[in-house]
Design brief:
Layout lengths: L4 H14 L7 H13 L5 E2 L9 E9 L10 H15 L5 E4 L11 H7 L3 E2 L25 E8 L8 E8 H14 L3 E10 H7 L4 H17 L4 H12 L2 E16 L2 E10 L2 E8 L1 E7 L2 E5 L3 E6 L5 E2 L9 E7 L13 H11 L9
Parallel strand pairs: 1-4, 2-3
Antiparallel strand pairs: 2-7, 5-6, 5-7, 8-9, 8-15, 9-10, 10-11, 11-12, 13-14, 13-15
Length: 360
């Protein structure tokens, strides 16, 4: 897939939708994409273009969306990959994103341009998720698997600079990376968990980047043609095979940050109909009058009612008017991490809502 300025914008907007409330800020995605294009990035490779034995390295940003869209410097992303190669001596044959989001979909582009490593359309997951373990393609199930991860972020002048390499059990290393994000002010750039391309083919989400691009292209085309926001959302819902749930006013918003993740609840009203969304970075549940409408890993997404542009959970403001759409998990391209019952139970513990029993 060739990438120019227009394709990058489509990818970012489509990625924001598949972010499901998380996945990074649109402006940060645009900044990284622009820098990558300036440095010569121009192509996303299909998995079939990559030898099965080639080592693919996952790249991501880890932290809370409310930390802000400018907390990481572009070179943090490059440094995370450089340091991983230095520490492990592994020859990296391709870069894959941990997830799809406005930032997630472009994570890898700048590193590719700087280090001459191809980006491959085989992300760990075809939507965004709150836990690094969810973007580990089922490696949590591999007995005695040893994870290796780098984390880079913070600033020397703020006395919170982090450049760390961790090696050990996947769950413990992922906790250390999350702790590093807190130390660095809310977010770190990460490189982690090298796997053969053949493993990503069977456990990742090949083709999810193209899905995001096509959705974003639809959004851009209809926005440019001045189609009404309601119609645009209807057409996006049709593209994904989902449901246009509501157009409502945001009431009470509860947000707190715990262990480097945003967690909270949004109350919404459409006329007299009350809705509730819970989020853990990404939207986890959507209910109407206590009736469950959608449950993670279903995709729940909010869009600005004035413009039809996607809004992540950290952007929602009391009094704002939003569209809410829901896409069944079966309609998405999901990685193996979305089928891990144990990880879904962690969601239940965080948001205090049932998740597993609603499993797709």
């Amino acid at each position: 897939m060739k990438i120019d300025k227009e394709a990058a914008e489509a990818s970012i907007l489509g990625g924001a939708i598949l972010g499901g409330g998380g996945g990074g800020w649109i402006e940060e995605g645009r900044t990284l994409a622009q820098l990558a294009l300036q440095r010569g990035f121009s192509k996303i490779h299909s998995l079939k273009d990559i030898p099965e034995e080639a080592v693919l390295l996952t790249v991501s940003a880890v932290g809370a969306p409310s930390a802000g869209s400018s907390i990481l410097e572009p070179e943090d992303y490059v440094r995370a990959v450089e340091m991983f190669a230095e520490k492990t001596g592994i020859k990296i044959g391709g870069l894959i994103s941990s997830e799809i989001g406005a930032l997630g979909i472009v994570n890898g582009w700048l590193q590719s341009a700087a280090l001459n490593i191809p980006v491959v359309d085989a992300p760990c997951n075809g939507r965004a998720h709150p836990l690094g373990l969810m973007g580990s393609m089922g490696l949590t199930k591999k007995e005695k698997y040893i994870s290796r991860q780098t984390a880079v972020g913070g600033r020397a002048k703020s006395n919170n600079q982090v450049e760390a390499f961790f090696e050990g059990p996947l769950s413990e290393v992922s906790k250390k990376v999350r702790e590093s994000a807190v130390t660095a002010g809310g977010m770190v750039a990460v490189a982690r968990n090298p796997v053969p391309a053949s493993y990503a083919k069977n456990h990742g989400a090949p083709g999810a980047m193209r899905m995001a691009f096509l959705a974003g292209r639809l959004l851009l085309k209809e926005t440019n043609n001045k189609i009404s926001p309601e119609k645009i959302v209807e057409h996006l819902v049709s593209f994904f095979g989902g449901t246009f749930v509501a157009k409502g006013i945001v009431g009470k918003l509860n947000l707190r940050t715990e262990a480097g993740l945003d967690i909270g609840r949004i109350d919404l009203k459409e006329g007299k109909k009350p809705y509730e969304l819970t989020f853990w970075n990404e939207y986890m549940t959507l209910e109407r009058d206590d009736e469950r409408i959608a449950t993670f890993p279903d995709l729940i997404m909010t869009l600005d009612a004035r413009t039809s542009m996607p809004l992540i959970s950290a952007q929602i403001k009391e009094g704002g008017e939003v569209f809410v759409m829901a896409i069944p998990g079966q309609k998405l391209i999901l990685g193996a991490g979305m089928r891990d019952r144990g990880l879904l139970q962690l969601v239940e513990k965080a948001i205090r809502k049932e998740i597993v029993k609603y499993g797709n």
